[in-house]
Amino acid sequence: MNGRPTNTRRKPRREPKKGKKKKNSSSCCCCCADKVADTETANESDSPPPASPSLELDTEQEVTTGCCCCRKKKKVKVTSESKCGKCCRKLTTFMFSHIGLCSLVVAYSVLGGYAFMLLESPHEVIERNNVELIRKEQVQRLWNVTKELNVFYEQNWTIIADEVFKFFQDEVFLATKEKGWDGKDGDKELQWSFAGALLYSVTVITTIGYGHIAPKTFYGRLVTIFYALVGIPLTLLCLANMGSFLSTCFRCLYKHSCNALLWFCCPQHMRRDRPKSKSRSKYSRRREPPSAEEDPLQDKVDDNGEVIVTIERETEQIKEEPVRVPIFISLMIIAGYIFGGAVIFSLWEEKWDYLIGSYFCFVTLTTIGFGDFVPGASSATWGNKEKNIFCVFYLVFGLSLIAMCFNLMQEEVRAKFRWLGQKFGVIDKQKT
């Protein structure tokens, strides 16, 4: 046995079964391998679609994977939105909130002014020429009647002249009522100038509708329908947005004005009521180390043997109540705006007194819009385009101011009714 070789049987190698592939896992145990396989399949199925290169960036971040036995760091690509994309999104949101809506309403009004001017001004010129032609025909007819009568008989002449004037009267009424004639000749100082058409477009989308001018053509009336369908919701949305924004600004102004007035009148009272911040040190510096209940960090000592001391500061946070503006102030703002406009319009219009100016401003800002008094509607002052433009700005800003005051008064009325409900026991104090 010493010199003879021993025959050792080798175990045959097991061939891998067909159809099964070996799992490639870099884990140290079977539980990690199963978890890694599941996460890889989930990542492959839930992978987000490729984003645009301009707004999103691909960054690599280290993520720890594995279980309690093994923890490894793996670099994963994470798509994050770029700063340019965030700025563009915020700018777009801001533009469509305040500036965008106001700019859109202004552009829509200007576009409507140009459209109505192009549609209605040619018709107005044609009607003026027709009325002038009819007047000249009736004058010539009256002269022919006078010339044909050799002997001047008053009775015969008055009968024929009365027929001529009645015919001309009917023609003038028809031209004024149905065709929009304003009593002028030629193509100067038109009602449907850009200023007049702009005022008309603003009165349409604000639902005021003075009625002093109205479209007389087929296309003008058709455009008015579709123009109002789009413009009225847009204007109401803009006015609501502007009212909310102006109410927030006015609350801030009212709060700082009241604080400044209190500081000026009684500064001692403001210093006494100013909230004070209380600082409290939980652990004080002392020679003997604190107990375990007082200091849970007593076991943590640095190299020099000094105990780590932490100081916590607690500040009293006082909940600020929302600023409420009294209803009296809101009513004073509306009254002041109406009276200021009344003074301006009474000085501009020759036949207007202070009462008519106040009446016009009140009817305009409440969107009643009778149209019996309109700045520049008389034949002597219609050509002044500045008055129409000023009326447009006064109207739009006034409606925004009214929306602001309604917003302020709405919160004050809610608070008053809530207080009354608590007094009568209808509303519980805890719920409010």
Briefly characterize the structure:
This protein has 432 residues and is mostly helical. Helices cover 57% and strands 5% of the residues.
Structure description:
- The chain has 432 residues and is mostly helical.
- It has a two-stranded antiparallel sheet.
- The protein is elongated and about 105 Å long.
- The protein starts with 29 loop residues before the first helix and ends in an 8-residue tail after the last helix.
Mean pLDDT across every amino acid position: 76
Main β-sheet description: 2 strands, antiparallel
Strand content: under 5%
Q: Roughly how much helix do the residues carry, as a percent range?
A: 55-70%
Number of helices: 9
Low-confidence stretches: 19-27, 40-57, 277-287
Arrangement of strands in the largest sheet: 1-2
Let me know the number of strands: 2
Q: What is the global morphology?
A: elongated
Q: Give the SSE order as H and E letters.
A: HEEHHHHHHHH
Any descriptors?
9 helices, 432 residues, mainly alpha, two-stranded antiparallel ribbon
